[in-house]
Structure formats: structure tokens, C-alpha cells
Amino acid sequence: MEARIQTVLASFPEAKPETAIECSEHLAILKRWCYRGTRTGEIFFADARGELPMRRLVRGIGRVYKDEAPEIGSPKPAQ
């Protein structure tokens, strides 16, 4: 499963905002999702080397698919 996810993620082009306005729009979308009362899904951040936590990502996909609660103790975005 990890290999399948890595293959799919590698097929997406890297998203780099071109302007400060585009960057702020991306952050606004993330903020709306994060503070929404009924949030569907989870968020995973890359580490310092730019690598995603693949095992946690696989478990998160399973939880979203099964409509389960997010992992307890998962990192929350800074406020």
C-alpha cells in the first residue's frame, strides 16, 4: 500500500505558489478546513527532509475510508 501511495504522489506535479496572493489563498483554504466544525479527512506534514510519514498516511487513509475518528495525539496545526 505504501508503494502504491508513493507512486500516486509522485505522479502529481509539485505545487509551488507563484505569488504571495496565491500562497495566502492556499493558507485560507487550509484554515477553513482546519477550523470547520465537521472536518472530513486528516492532514500530514512532511519532515525536515521533505518526506511524508507513509505508515501514518496509510493508516489515515484507512480511517477516512472507514469514516473513523482521527488518530489521537496527531499533531495539530499551530494557531
Question: Would you kindly provide a written description of the structure presented here, covering whatever features stand out?
Answer:
With 79 residues, this protein is mainly α. It has one domain (2-10, 17-66). The chain contains 3 helices and no strands. The protein has helices at 2-11, 20-34, 54-66. It is globular.
| Helical/strand content category | mainly alpha
What is the helix fraction of residues, given as a range?
Answer: 40-55%
Strand content bin = under 5%
What is the count of DSSP helices, taking H or I runs of 4+ residues? 3
Low-confidence stretches: none
- Please tell me the total number of domains: 1
Largest sheet: none
Number of strands: 0
Task: Sketch the topology as an H/E string, one letter per element.
Answer: HHH
How does the SSE layout of this entry go?
Elements: H1 2-11, H2 20-34, H3 54-66
Key traits:
single chain; 79 residues; mainly alpha; 48% helix
Task: Please summarize what this structure is.
Helices cover 48% and strands 0% of the residues. With 79 residues, it is mostly helical. The mean pLDDT is 85.
